[in-house]
Amino acid sequence: MWVLLALLAIPIIEIALFVQIGGHIGVTGTLAEVFVTGALGIVLMRLEPQRNAGDVRAALARDASPASPMAHSALRLVGAVALVLPGFFTDLLGALLLVPVIRHLILARVLIRIQTAVQEKHGHPGPRPRGDIIEGDFERDPDTVERDRRLRDPEKRD
User: Fold this and answer.
1) Residue 77: which residues within 8 A CB-CB, separation 6 or more?
2) What's the CA gap between 55 and 26, in Å, rounded?
3) What is the mean pLDDT of each run of 10 residues along the chain (158 residues)?
4) pTM for this one?
5) Of 98, 71, 66, 100, nearest to 84 (Cα)?
6) DSSP readout, 67-80?
7) Helices then strands (H, E): number in the chain?
């Protein structure tokens, strides 16, 4: 429902801003703003895969989860796409998504909403334990391990 309202509201907001801001800066200024932000958005979209790969590699090198760099990359990409779309409102949204502090706030809010939804669904934090898991201990039989090794490696067969 909210997505539909946003899709209907964005063009109305853009038209109103084009009339208001365009009246102050003129046609040339408005067109220049649209072309400059569009070009910037295209450049950012083209550079994002390399930046994302570097951020993910750095996270893995630190033995950290790559989830945060990937989420930041996704928001930067959405920001770049918003810059490509013509309009003052989408340019503002795109520029905001390029600011690291804003991305951190958005991702923190999304994480809180996900955790709240999980807690409401399961009645406790974290994933619900599966019913088909049976806990227990085991030992490897040396004879079985050797037999499996011979079956995998044809050179060790008798």
Assistant:
1) 45, 48
2) 41
3) 88 93 92 95 95 92 90 95 95 96 94 86 64 73 77 64
4) 0.71
5) 98
6) HHHHHHHHHHHHHH
7) 5, 0
